[in-house]
Write a structure and sequence with these properties.
single chain, mainly alpha, 8 helices, about 55% helix, globular
Length: about 130
């Protein structure tokens, strides 16, 4: 049987995920340096990296990648951080993720499929390395 988390641990986890959503790269870096897993995942399978990418926070994405976050991880809906960054039209985050090895064809829908579906030519060009 899984051990139940106490209220303090749950509150800390909420705070960490809120930092990814709100752009708290400095605080996240401190927690990561103290051993917080860079691939921490919430109950929907969203990693900190996916949340940082979706909420348009390149410094959060960069910090997480520097601490070993896996750009290939998908959430429970099959989405990747790269697809989230493409959807949000954030070229800086797309470049960071591609440089870290993110594959434009991973996930469902993939980043490439997202760019095509939403008719985002700039994102399509970035994914092709242009």
């Amino acid at each position: 049987m899984a051990e139940e988390l106490d209220a303090e641990t749950i509150a800390f986890a909420h705070r960490v995920f809120d930092l990814a959503r709100s752009g708290g790269a400095g605080e996240l870096a401190d927690f990561l340096a103290q051993g917080l897993p860079a691939n921490l995942t919430n109950d929907k399978g969203d990693t900190l990296l996916i949340l940082g990418a979706y909420h348009n926070h390149p410094p959060v994405v960069a910090t997480l990648l520097e601490h070993g976050a896996d750009p290939a991880r998908v959430n429970d809906r099959g989405q990747t951080a790269l697809a989230a960054a493409v959807f949000r039209k954030n070229a800086e985050t797309v470049r960071l993720l591609l440089a870290a090895g993110a594959n434009p064809d991973d996930g469902k829908p993939s980043a490439r499929e997202t760019a095509e579906f939403f008719e985002l030519p700039q994102m399509t060009a970035l994914l092709r390395g242009e």
